[in-house]
Design goal:
Elements: H1 2-15, H2 19-42, H3 48-72, H4 76-92, H5 99-113, H6 121-132, H7 138-149
C-alpha cells in the first residue's frame, strides 16, 4: 500500500537526515490526512491506494503549475524548491501511460461504446477515468479524446 510506503519513506528520510525529502513526504502525508478527514463526513472510503494516488496527482499538478508561474515571474529559487517536491511526489505515483498507450486505450473505449462524435466525449472520458484514472493525467487525456472524436 502506498500509505505504508510513504510512512516508511518518512522514517528513512528522518534516519538519513534528508530535510527536504522529509518535508515533502510530511506534506504528502498531511494532504492524505486532510482527504481522510473530508471523506469521513461525505462518502465511504473506497480503495485506499486510489485515494492516495488521487491526492498525489493533484499535488503534482499544483507543483507543475507553480513551477511554470515561478519561472515566468523570475523566481528561480522558488521554482527549484517546487521541482524538488515534485520529484518526491512523482516517486510515489505509478508509471504514467505513454501517449501511444493512451491513444490505444481511447480507441478501444471508442469502439466498445460506439462513440462517434463530440457528444459522446463524456461517456468516453468517464470510461477512460474508470479504467486508467491512476495512470493518466486526465487533462492531457481530454485533448487526446477530443482529437479522436473530432
Amino acid at each position: 500500500m502506498l500509505r505504508d510506503d510513504l510512512k516508511a519513506a518518512q522514517i528513512q528520510a528522518m534516519k538519513e537526515k534528508e530535510k527536504e525529502r522529509l518535508n515533502a513526504v510530511r506534506l504528502i502525508l498531511a494532504k492524505i490526512k486532510d482527504r481522510d478527514i473530508e471523506l469521513r463526513t461525505s462518502e465511504p472510503a473506497g480503495d485506499d491506494d486510489a485515494l492516495v494516488i488521487d491526492v498525489l496527482q493533484k499535488m503534482a499538478k499544483q507543483r507543475r503549475e507553480s513551477i511554470a508561474m515561478y519561472n515566468e515571474g523570475g523566481r528561480a529559487e522558488l521554482a527549484e524548491a517546487e521541482e524538488k517536491e515534485l520529484v518526491v511526489i512523482e516517486e510515489f505515483l505509478p508509471a504514467q501511460m505513454s501517449e501511444e498507450e493512451t491513444k490505444a486505450a481511447i480507441e478501444a473505449i471508442k469502439a466498445e461504446t460506439g462513440a462517434t462524435g463530440m457528444k459522446d466525449m463524456g461517456k468516453v472520458m468517464a470510461e477512460l477515468k474508470a479504467r486508467h484514472g491512476t495512470e493518466l493525467d486526465m487533462s492531457k487525456a481530454s485533448g487526446l479524446v477530443k482529437a479522436a472524436l473530432s
